[in-house]
Description:
This protein is α/β, with parallel strands linked by helices. It contains twelve helices and 14 strands.
Amino acid sequence: MSEVLLTHGYFVQEDEKEQRIMRPYPPLGLLYVAAWLEAHQVENEVFDTTFSSMDALKQHLAASRPAYCCIYVNLMTKVNVVHIMQWIRQHLPATTIILGGPEVRNHAQNFLEYGAHYIVLGEGEVTTLELIEHLRAGKEPVQVAGLRYLAPDGTLHNTGEREKIKDLNVLPLPARHKINLHAYLDAWKTAHGLNAVSVNTMRGCPYTCKWCSRAVYGLSYRRRSPEHVVAELKHIKNTYNPDTLWFVDDVFTVSHKWLAAFAAEVIREDAVIPYECITRADRMSEEVIALLKQSGCFRVWIGAESGSQRVIDLMDRRVEVSKVREMIQLSRAGGLETGT
């Protein structure tokens, strides 16, 4: 059995809305952490709960009895995660519970009091590895940046912020081989006639829209090189041959220089896969639309969030409603499907 088990608490069988939409995506964040641990000789497995059940997760935990259980938490899954932690505390007292994800930063004390041993803040790869290495050696992880945990006297211990990974090219590709990706592909195909694989090329966002969470990647913009991304697309194409891709980046066209290099590389390497992406109206133009089309984009979502300029300004969106309308029309004229 693996030393480390990574999981989350999302079950599509509990989500009536997603059952109607049926566009589930695998937990990329967990898969990046799993790949980083694997690259550093830490044996691990991923129990992907999306198409599973709470009972199946408990049965697997009871059988595998991992030394460390790492759980991703977001707003939708926090209640399930609390239940999972309490079950582990009762039935697997030797298992160390490590939480990460966007929900933990502002509720660290609560999660610790409900059963977590350690909270990982921000990017999880390096912090999780260092934490496990310290715990293996019987050391208190006071020198491991990016943690919160309860000291023996019950006070909250904060080891400070972890420096963000500057060069994202050092990250191995997400460990998609650790989950049943075909379950996602089949679900999409059945519901929509086409399937999709999700890909991340960047971390962070340079904009300050007030509704958006920066709990994991912060107010930053860091991006993998076009060559690194295209190498992943070639692997995906050769391994899974999906109908489409979904780029999960907040603003795919934020850098026109990067987009031009990506378009050239993906064509040169014969790695074009039809894709859709998200962007902002002020980062669109006729040239950008042409580059998107050349590189395989068939649909672009141009964020507006409201048709009211007053509401957009209150959200610090920093975009004109008229510009959104203009870019939607221009994109359609350029042969792209569009939405907002």
